[in-house]
Amino acid sequence: MSARAEAHHQHRDVSGGWLRPSVFGAMDGLVSNFALIAGVAGGTGEPGVIALAGVAGLAAGAFSMAGGEYVSVASQRELALREIKVEARELARHPDDELAELTRTFTDRGVQPELAAEVARQLSRDPQQALELHTRNELGVTPGDLPKPKLAAGSSFLSFAVGAALPLLPYLFGATELWVSAAVSCAALFGAGALVSLVTARSWWYSGLRQLVVGGVAAALTFALGNAIEGVAL
User: Fold this and answer.
1) What is the pLDDT of residue 215?
2) Is 48 inside a domain boundary?
3) 218: Cβ–Cβ under 8 A, 6 or more apart, which residues?
4) In a domain, 3, yes or no
5) Which of 6, 133, 166, 198 has the most other CB atoms within 10 Å of its CB?
């Protein structure tokens, strides 16, 4: 019965797991480099110049994403560790007050006071478990499951680089017209948007079309800007 119930009762991954940051990082690289290539193509017809701009955009964007993600996650981790130390110190200095606080957590959720006090007492026997419970309830973090800055930076770098490489590849393989890059980029935009539907409630075709429109509009506007700047310069 439990196996049948578990098979029947399933949820989408609301946190996104690894899929969400990977897909959105690749999507960011795809949209930004597609728009950059389109803008440069609107200002010049030189394939070599366009390819150079695409390579520069890939490298700059990937390093920027990695650096920003590293600093952001490292700062978040350091703040969490500092607050965990505060909680550990309070558990050591004022165990009775912390026990009463944990008891209130259970009673606030509808557990009877006597049962809540007994559950809190039993769970607090293990200092590590008590610390985990308090930090999860008060800070929303688990001491052994904090984000890793290097992993976040590396995954951001790779996902952005993969996305940014797609509109650039046609030029690296000898294409001379923007429409080839645009065709690859539009297909990738739709595919990335469809993949996002795995972590949302939208259908795959809606998510794909939405991302295609967003990326296409960004590239079209940048192309028009590049074309306008070329006209003014000439």
Assistant:
1) 95
2) no
3) 31, 34, 35
4) no
5) 166
